[in-house]
Amino acid sequence: MAQLQAIGACSSSKISFHRPRICGTPAYRDNICYFKKSNFHLEVGARSSGFCGHVNINQNSRQTCVTGNKDIQFVLADEKGTDPTLSGKTDVYGSHNGSRLRGKLNKVVLAYSGGLDTSVIVPWLRENYGCEVVCFTADVGQGVMEMDGLERKAKASGASQLVVKDLKEEFVRDYIFPCLRAGAVYERKYLLGTSMARPVIAKAMVDVAREVGADAVSHGCTGKGNDQVRFELTFFALNPELKVVAPWREWEITGREDAIEYAKKHNVPVPVSKKSIYSRDRNLWHLSHEGDILEDPANEPKKDMYMMTVDPEDAPNEPEYVEIGINSGMPVSLNGKELSPASLLSELNEIGGKHGIGRVDMVENRLVGMKSRGIYETPGGTILWTAARELESLTLDRETMQVKDMLALKYAELVYAGRWFDPLRQSMDAFMQKITHTTTGSVTLKLYKGSVSLASRKSPYSLYREDISSFENGLIYNQADAAGFIRLYGLPTRVRAMLERGI
């Protein structure tokens, strides 16, 4: 990193770029002149790029020269420094060594995982916004290992405190189960594991911001993914006055090496855990895998990549039966035992994982416009989704089921897009709650080597009547009545055919 600074009282400065001879082409010079009647401040920041050559800064009789493989960034300001884009000396990481800041915030609540990226964000926020940083971690079932030593890491990075909230029951009860009741599936396969987790985390961040008196929130989402939208739409919906800082859209850290260098520079302990070759997101509902060989949709996932489910080929050779109890569209029991939402899902994850249930390989359309390939493991969720749909086959009539299925597509799209607190989703949820009021009963499923198949279903509100559906004649349904029904139902078809034949 090279920086040049020239300060003077002259009325004109001249900056010359001398580029070397490349592949036989003649060298040439670019001259840039800047005129100002009063004193001026000129800062030249050089960042690594493909520009080759050297720079001369001529001011009166003084000259400074920089050589190297750099491109040049100029920041100009008047003598009073009133340009809001100026922030003192800026290095390659977007940090500031001077007294001026990108903005001034009092206190920021940061979504914190303890990994390299969020550890680096803590000092970056303090340096660039002059603020106190409160780290927040939500326990949504990502596992004990990811929660280890977080407070020590956060404070070592410069945070004033770490707030941890156990959101597992709320996550399953108020986010996962409503989506399950709605039958929400994104693009035929995705059971919305990450999509459902973001609004519950963001909602908790808004609550923490109120509790600690913060005026801003921050997250470590990149500018290419869906999560930035999901977090920020929740912030907007629940507290539009909160400022949002998204470092990945501001700083110039471009990868892991840059982040490690920044951490060392600011005495931030770099996490020593082995960096996974995959980008993973885990919660109580699912585990997602992206990156590395998965970026090519032609590549088959490696067998050792999976963490929640065994390979179906290695699953037990004997099937296992599970009975799921459902009340008004919401799961309430497993094998006759009533459990809390989070406990029920946890047990099903263990059972389903043992049998290799719930693996999905899909190419999806991200909200920001690009396609991405991901592998999802959702063992317990796949079992519950199957049970809920099978019970509805007993309790919902044809027209209701068709409307529900159509709305489920829109419901899933809203959740995927981060619009959990949108009035449309909330209104649709009220509809789902109303029509599944009688979706009560139990479903028994057979789990065997990666497959989930139906064994039995029953409900006190079943619309299925054996005395009507039987092939035997009954008092309610007279088979002879079908002739008149068919004639009337097929009348439009018959009339069109008569017209075509001139009858």
Automatic annotation (TrEMBL):
Its EC number is 6.3.4.5. PROSITE patterns: ARGININOSUCCIN_SYN_1, ARGININOSUCCIN_SYN_2. CDD domains: ASS (cd01999). Gene3D superfamilies: Argininosuccinate synthetase, chain A, domain 2, HUPs, Single helix bin. Keywords: Amino-acid biosynthesis, Arginine biosynthesis, ATP-binding, Ligase, Nucleotide-binding. GO terms for cellular component: cytoplasm. Residues 107-269 form the Arginosuccinate synthase-like N-terminal domain. The keyword Amino-acid biosynthesis applies. Residues 278-495 form the Arginosuccinate synthase C-terminal domain. Pathway: Amino-acid biosynthesis; L-arginine biosynthesis; L-arginine from L-ornithine and carbamoyl phosphate: step 2/3. GO terms for molecular function: argininosuccinate synthase activity; ATP binding. InterPro entries: Arginosuc_syn_C (IPR048268), Arginosuc_syn_N (IPR048267), Arginosuc_synth (IPR001518), Arginosuc_synth_CS (IPR018223), Arginosuc_synth_type_1_subfam (IPR023434), AS_cat/multimer_dom_body (IPR024074), Rossmann-like_a/b/a_fold (IPR014729). GO terms for biological process: argininosuccinate metabolic process; L-arginine biosynthetic process; urea cycle. HAMAP family: Arg_succ_synth_type1. Homotetramer. PANTHER family: ARGININOSUCCINATE SYNTHASE. This is argininosuccinate synthase. It comes from Elaeis guineensis var. tenera (Oil palm). The gene is LOC105038658.
